[in-house]
Design brief:
mainly alpha; Four Helix Bundle (Hemerythrin (Met), subunit A); 5 helices; 82% helix; elongated
Length: 143
């Protein structure tokens, strides 16, 4: 199903997050601790500047369009990501060694969440939401 234009900004943000994760994954597979830290800092910065806002936008603009099970899962996964990113951020800010397994787990959580939104949540919205509601999303995203 082709993504409705009002949901495309969310998909583009997902794509950017996955590109940063791919870079971090490559660094995690190497033994270069400096490269791992740089990639993790890039991801942390992206989280704080863009992706946290992305989650808040999804929660404010899309949450009421979802059925109860989708809404519950979306909010739970967002909270899990917030906690995992907070843990990674604390390690980075305190200059502690990154827990590679923790970072890999966060990568897995983020990838699975993005895949779920793209394959389940967005198609659900496109099937069950009126064109007017979709236009309101687009308007809100441009304000």
């Amino acid at each position: 199903m082709k993504r409705h234009p009002s949901l495309q900004p969310f998909s583009r943000e997902h794509h950017r997050a996955l590109i940063l994760w791919r870079n971090l994954d490559k660094q995690l597979d190497s033994s270069d601790a400096v490269g791992q830290r740089v990639a993790a800092v890039d991801l942390w910065d992206y989280w704080n500047v863009s992706f946290l806002i992305h989650l808040k936008s999804e929660e404010s603009l899309l949450i009421d369009l979802l059925n109860a099970p989708l809404r519950t899962r979306l909010l739970a996964e967002h909270e899990t990501m917030r906690l995992e990113f907070l843990s990674m951020g604390l390690a980075l800010e305190s200059n502690c060694e990154l827990g590679i397994d923790d970072v890999r787990n966060l990568a897995s959580v983020l990838r699975a969440h993005i895949r779920w939104e793209e394959r389940v949540v967005f198609p659900y919205i496109q099937r069950h939401v009126t064109e007017q509601d979709l236009r309101q999303i687009a308007t809100a995203l441009t304000e």
